Amino acid sequence: MPGAAPGAVPGAPPGRVREPIGAQVRAPRRAIWENRGMPATPTALAPAPAAPTPAQSGVGSLGSGALRIGPLSLDVPVVLAPMAGITNTAFRRLCREYGAGLYVSEMITSRALVERTPESMRLIRHHESETPRSIQLYGVDPATMREAVTMLVAEDRADHIDMNFGCPVPKVTRKGGGAALPWKLDLFRAIVENAVRAAGDVPVTVKMRKGIDADHLTYLEAGRIAEGAGVASVALHARTASEFYSGHADWDAIGTLKQTVTSVPVLGNGDIWSAEDALRMVEQTGCDGVVVGRGCLGKPWLFGDLAAAFRGEAREHGAQPSLGEVARAFRRHVELLVDFFDDENRACRDIRKHVAWYFKGYPIGGETRAALAMASSLAEFDELLGGLDHDAPYPGAEAEGPRGRAGTPKVPALPENWLDSRELREDHRLTLVDAELSTSGG
Predict the structure, then answer these.
(1) Which of 95, 167, 287, 296 is catalytic?
(2) Domain residues of the chain, as ranges?
(3) Active site (annotated) includes residue 167
(4) Contact, 308 vs 275, CB < 8 A?
(5) What is the pLDDT of residues 114-151, one digit of tens each?
(6) CATH number of 54-318
(7) Do 149 and 137 form a contact (C-beta atoms < 8 A)?
(8) Whole-number mean pLDDT of the chain?
């Protein structure tokens, strides 16, 4: 590589000279854990509503709404939840332009990262404006997770590493991954302990669900194990895998976890559609902060509302953007996607899934919605957005509430006889090999 320092890792941050971890080519698969570490700038929007101060709401241990995750100190206790196909660099940068907090990457498979697949290497890139840099990993093999974390730390690619134990997607749980994994206590413990040891001073956190279904809850045991392993915080999406995103999140479970895990922050996730919801969650559960997922889809200004609310700033009402303000945010998102993909056509295809979220409740007409969902260039978007009534006011309740697909309750897909034992049997070790494939989930 012309001009590269000797020993420089391809794709590593400029000036970093690190010994690469993992091969450039795919390593042959082998039986999992065989002697491998397992014990047998948008326009400012209108202000948000007056709300209880952080002290009144019981937020965090640092006071004034602050949250500490290991050595990281956040001035507001807000985390952007990892969402596959959503929380790429472009969306994270957009959300940062409105608010504050910790903004986590899309879920990245540990094996794909160790193998340095082009897509995984692209997903771990951060823009120079992003600090702290946060990456979420998914994996089912303690040794592979250790290698992935070692790589991120050795090459100085992350300031915070989160681990996914909450994905409810059938293609993940049927292999024993995601929300199904904490059922196997020895496996869960080994993965978390390996990651924490490999991370050194970089804080490692865990995000999980209540369990597989109402009869197979795992969150309290998993919370205690993670705390004992040295994680810097634990986040709970207060639904089971069987619920997917349906119904209402069980905030009482967050409160129970907070009473169980006492030495590190506990963060709550589920049904936060507004700043008021976030404050209510903290007040009701005593949790130390909130993780926001679907509530910010097409609504990046929510992070401005959240920051103001947790800082106790007096505001008359939440962000109520005009159609023109929404159009400018949407246009900025496309622009950032072009920068991320370095491909205008791909960026324009990627933004299509966001159209319904951004313009929810706004009177733009079916033809315009369809056209926005088919545009393939910035010039087309500019023409369509320019034709909107930018003075159209905020539509109120029609623009609020749940976003994204909720799904319906379903019997979780699991490996055969997975629930028979809390310990990992040999036949399940072999099943889990397939779960190390490059996988994305929620």
Answers:
(1) 167
(2) 54-318, 323-393
(3) yes
(4) yes
(5) 999 999 999 999 999 999 999 999 999 999 999 999 99
(6) 3.20.20.70
(7) yes
(8) 86
